[in-house]
Amino acid sequence: MQDILLGGHRIGASQPPFIIAEMSGNHGQSLERALAIVDAAADAGCQGLKIQTSTPDMLTLDSREPDFVVRGANQDWEGQSLYELYTTNFTPFEWHAAIFERARERGMVGFSSPFGIEAIEFLESVGCPAYKIASFENNWPDLIRRAAQTGKPVIISTGMADLADLERMVNIVRGEGNEQLVLLKCTSTYPAEPHNTNLRTIPHLRELFDCQVGLSDHTMGTGVSVAATVLGASVIEKHLTLSRADGGPDGSFSMEPAEMAHLVHECRQAQQALGAVYYGPTAAERKSLAFRRSIYVVQDVAIGEVLTLENVRVIRPGYGLPPHLLPQVLGRPARRALRRGMALTWEML
């Protein structure tokens, strides 16, 4: 499967995981705070900064009919109408250029999740370098198709999608001649619980669709993202806020800056630790070979004297013959006089 280039960053199995900080509505309708979140993501070591491009009218109706009121999804959303929720959550279009520019200045890729065809057209006008399709939008073929038609990387969260849904969305992207596809394993609960995350799906997705696969992680803490990295996730996405205490639609399941920095460090450590299939001492271990056991002379031995358990032993350090040769050594005469503390070698017998 091919690596993907996103704003100069390479996404692939041999690379450190590409870590995306999702701002969502954590800017609290303040551009100053939005730019502070960009800076916090950069300081934490994230390579990607993602926002959301929508308006409430793009998403739903202004209605409080029962179908349009949130029940049982997240305590911070409870009782709000969808329209009310999206009014507090959306990022004003006029902020996009400033946010993307700050991300570029800080060495990150700024991009967005569009929530309508018109959102993609707007994002094209400001040079958005990639598109993320949210889980709640992954059943909308027209949106996926338009994102794929840009020829830019398309990252799709797979929350709630069954295999038929997944095949459909993958075929739509590839049907437009776009091979720059990333699927993110996602559990669409806020927050998500580790036992509902099913990370073993990650290598299965990669095998099924021969594309880069990652994790959109709504769990608390770093453990699930680190485990996903070990299973081959090449992208990790996490929500970021300046402080959970500030509240907001996504604040309760977002990471704070210090936590995000820890996540970046731990995921990169995990990827480095994977290494390759390797047996025997590594170059870094060679000095430690001295601390293994080997066969040593522990009493002076005269020429011709037979070696026994009294005059040789298996001890540290490791400069003598290896311990498994002890049965072949015992009972042999010494070719020369041996001194206590000598590492035993074949030339001595």
From TrEMBL:
Top-level lineage group: Bacteria
PROSITE patterns associated with the record: AFP_LIKE
InterPro entries: AFP_Neu5c_C_sf, Aldolase_TIM, PseI-like, PseI/NeuA/B-like_N, Pseudaminic_synth_PseI, SAF, SAF_AFP_Neu5Ac, SAF_PseI/NeuA/NeuB
NCBIfam families for the chain: PseI (TIGR03586)
Protein name listed in UniProt: Pseudaminic acid synthase
Species in which this protein is naturally found: Hymenobacter ginkgonis
Annotated Pfam families: NeuB, SAF
Enzyme kind, highest EC tier: transferase
EC number: 2.5.1.97
Taxon lineage: Bacteria, Pseudomonadati, Bacteroidota, Cytophagia, Cytophagales
Coiled coil regions in record: none
Record GO terms (molecular function): N-acylneuraminate-9-phosphate synthase activity
Keyword annotations: Transferase
Domain AFP-like, first and last residues per copy: 294-349
One of the GO BP terms on file: carbohydrate biosynthetic process
